[in-house]
Design a protein that fits this description.
The chain is of the alpha/beta class and 414 residues long. The protein has 2 domains: 166 residues, Aspartate Aminotransferase, domain 1 (Alpha-Beta Complex), CATH 3.90.1150; 236 residues, Aspartate Aminotransferase, domain 2. The protein has 12 helices and 13 strands. The strands form 3 sheets. The protein has a 7-stranded mixed beta sheet, with helices on both faces. Strands 1-2-3-13 form a 4-stranded mixed beta sheet. The radius of gyration is 22 Å and the shape is globular. The protein starts with 7 loop residues before the first helix and ends in a 6-residue tail after the last helix. Its cofactor is pyridoxal 5'-phosphate. Keywords: Aminotransferase, Pyridoxal phosphate, Transferase. Pfam families: Aminotran_3.
């Protein structure tokens, strides 16, 4: 029988924060995105594949800060490289430090679509720069999208505070539905600056999807047919599915790609990479500037992260861990009397409950994740998880065991 976690300190901090910070916490980290009253709201520290909240509860961290933690928390080799840069050279200047060129050259070496590179701080920065580049390159306005692309005006799901004119030229289609895209392009293709898509499908609260045979190739062909810039949003898939991104794994090369999250193991950096004929508009036609974009600490962290990923064959080892986890999960759900799906194996595991006419899934989902968090496995009910290198074999086996136990407790939630 699981026991509710002691979360008194976390709850107190949350109540205090509500008085001084709108919503207490920004966006996707707010309690309603988990199971309110069951999940911690504040973490205190982490190491490797585990994280500890402010009440002292420890968890196997399988959300990995929503993806940036690819190796592990507090990786000494990466942090030491950053500290050395900080102490011996500094990191915020009126001019740019040489590390920028080194990192750009590395990305061009690894990523099929990369002929030129521009650095930013966040994924939303990167996707918005990519769209600006596409519009400037084509002198077109319309954008067709598939996936989550951030919080900026043109793509954010919640439209509060945003004039309609800033997003009315953006159209959506569903992942793996090539007919939907083809129909949109028939109507808008000659005016469409960009098709932006996540090469791996990860719609909110729904199962993770891999591309059907011919899907990404079909998207590429439609972009070519209408002279539209094809953008791959690799914020989640980049440096996880392959060091060259999912584009290298799937063999489909876009015109522009955006990367972030795993490329620096938690340090804030994003990159826009692409073919020279498109990227060159950033030299004159498109304005891009920020006080902090050139800061070198994140660039040092990224270069060191990539070095470790290559040197130690990290992605192969993560894939092995994820395949073991996925095999266990698929064995477990064979004996579960509910309509459950396991997706995203091996790199972005997600356990979801299919919608049903009686809305039973609305009880099963929070019940399952309540049982899981009480057993010390940190996953999110509405977002896929991640596998990190520092998750030990014992961590993965324990997490799978706790998934099985949690399913066994669900009858009490119905």
């Amino acid at each position: 029988m699981s026991k509710k976690l002691k979360l008194d300190v976390s709850d107190h901090m949350y109540q205090e924060a509500l008085k001084i910070i709108p919503g207490a916490i920004a966006g996707i980290r707010r309690p309603y995105n988990f199971v309110p009253g069951e999940y911690p709201i504040y973490f205190d520290h982490a190491k490797g594949g585990r994280v500890t909240d402010v009440d002292g509860n420890e968890y196997i961290d399988m959300l990995c800060a929503y993806g940036p933690i690819i190796i592990g928390h507090r990786e000494e080799e990466i942090d030491n490289a950053v500290i050395e840069q900080m102490r011996n050279k500094g990191f915020c200047f009126s001019l740019t430090q040489p590390i920028q060129n080194q990192l750009a050259e590395k990305l061009i070496e690894l990523i099929p679509s990369a002929e030129m590179v521009s650095f930013v701080k966040t994924g939303s920065d990167a996707t918005s720069v990519a769209i600006r580049v596409a519009r400037a390159s084509t002198d077109r306005i319309k954008v067709i999208r598939c996936g989550y692309h951030g919080w900026h005006d043109w793509c954010v799901e919640v439209k509060g505070g945003i004039p309609r004119k800033l997003w009315e030229d953006v159209y959506e289609f569903h992942y793996n539905e090539l007919d939907e895209l083809e129909d949109l392009m028939k109507h808008h293709g000659d005016e469409t600056a960009a098709i932006i898509i996540t090469p791996v499908g990860h719609p909110l609260a729904d199962k993770v999807q891999m591309p059907k045979p011919g899907f990404l190739e079909g998207v590429r062909a439609l972009a070519d047919k209408y002279g539209t810039v094809l953008v791959f949003d690799e914020i989640r898939s980049g440096f996880r599915y392959d060091l060259g991104g999912a584009q290298k794994l799937f063999g489909v090369t876009p015109d522009i790609s955006v990367f972030g999250k795993a490329m620096a193991n938690g340090y804030p950096i994003g990159a826009v990479v692409g073919k020279e004929k498109f990227m060159k508009v950033l030299a004159d036609k498109v304005f891009l500037s920020s006080t902090f974009f050139p800061n070198s600490l994140e660039q040092v962290a990224s270069l060191k992260t990539i070095e470790i990923l290559e040197r130690d064959h990290i992605l192969d080892k993560i894939r092995e861990k994820g395949e073991f986890f996925g095999k266990r999960l698929n064995q477990i759900i064979k004996n579960v009397p509910y309509d459950v799906e396991v997706s995203g194996i091996p790199l972005m595991p997600f356990i979801t409950f299919k919608k049903d006419a009686d809305n039973l899934y609305k009880k099963l989902r929070p019940g399952f994740y309540t049982e899981l968090i009480r057993r010390g496995v940190f996953l999110q009910p509405y977002h896929h998880g991640y596998i990190a290198y520092r998750h030990t074999d014992q961590d993965i086996a324990y997490a799978a065991d706790m998934v099985e136990e949690s399913f066994g407790e669900l009858k009490k939630y119905i």
